[in-house]
Amino acid sequence: MDAPGAYRHCERVVRSQARNFSYGIRLLPPPKRRALSAVYAFARRIDDIGDDHGAPPATRLAKLADERARLADVDAHPSDPVLVALADAARRYPIPLGAFGELIDGCEADVRGGTYDTFDDLLWYCRCVAGAVGRLSLGVFGTSDPETALPRADALGVALQLTNILRDVREDGLNGRVYLPAKDLARFGCTLERDASGRLADDPERLAGLIRFEADRAAGWYDTGLALLPMLDRRSAACAGAMAGIYRHVLRRITADPPAALETRTSLPAWEKATVSVMAMAGIHR
After folding, report:
1. Residues 6 or more apart in contact with residue 240 via CB below 8 angstroms
2. Quick check: 166 and 44 in contact, CB under 8 A?
3. Which pLDDT tens digit goes with each residue over 134-175?
4. Using one digit for the tens of pLDDT, what is the confidence trace for 41-78?
5. How many CB atoms lie within 10 A of CB 84?
6. Would you identify the CATH topology of the domain 3-281?
7. DSSP letters spanning the chain
8. What does the pLDDT look like over 222-257, one tens digit per residue?
9. Which candidate, 182, 160, 180, places its Cα nearest to that of 172?
């Protein structure tokens, strides 16, 4: 497949499977939009393998190992549109393709049923599955001071992943996953276990305290990560700001009503996502 066709495939993947991120990606000029679509399409492939609960763990781990091997020679797969696009993007931009290895590490931890005792343990996971994507994205955005920008891009990824974890507590619990640190659960006297009717058995006030504590922590990571935006060109800053803005709005909804967030998946209507994107393009980040 030629590069233009490969990029079109990746952009379709982003529009259909990464809808929150698509609001930001569409704000980029075409060359960067195509390159970041390739990054996200490959990241999505890895995530989908890790999240395929219909496949045995051994099968998923083998598939992740295959993708790791394919990534080692990204130019050697002319029939794979995602890798064709990714290889072309990496020739045009300083994309640190090795960071995908960290994403695979995090997905392997998911498949193996990893749990996290302390926040530092969880931080390792967040940096693997989201901080790495922030660093990959920075390769497309570009910056004159990568040494300062890289940890900020990493922090923004961590903030988004912590938001994802809080948004998906119920869904993850039904799949047998608990990401919140065990020490935090113990601190608030919570287990996230459900009773026979499927409702969380923990005291509602304790649960709300736990969720707000974790949300405050995520907000601090946004504060650090958003310091990246002044280091980017206007449209790259708009892209990152739109992505972060959408997730920050989700975090605020979770903080405002923790019980609802624990029983339903918090999301924003399309009009609100579009509004955040328009504001980001205007340089307004809230």
Report:
1. 24, 137, 141, 156, 228, 229, 232
2. no
3. 999 999 999 989 999 999 999 999 999 999 999 999 888 888
4. 999 999 999 988 889 999 999 999 999 999 999 999 99
5. 23
6. Farnesyl Diphosphate Synthase (1.10.600)
7. --HHHHHHHHHHHHHHH-HHHHHHHTTS-HHHHHHHHHHHHHHHHHHHHHT-TTS-HHHHHHHHHHHHHHHHTGGG-TT-HHHHHHHHHHHHS---TTHHHHHHHHHHHHHTT---SSHHHHHHHHIIIIIHHHHHHHHHH--S-HHHHHHHHHHHHHHHHHHHHHHTHHHHHHTT---S-HHHHHHHT----B-TTSSB-S-HHHHHHHHHHHHHHHHHHHHHHGGGGGGS-HHHHHHHHHHHHHHHHHHHHHHH-HHHHHHS-----HHHHHHHHHHHHTT---
8. 999 999 999 999 999 999 999 999 999 999 999 999
9. 180
Count of residues for the chain?
A: 286
Task: Dig out the tokens for 120 from the structure.
Answer: 């530092």
Residue pLDDT, tens place only, 255-280: 999 988 888 888 888 888 888 888 87
Residue-range domain boundaries for the chain? 3-281
pTM score, whole prediction: 0.93
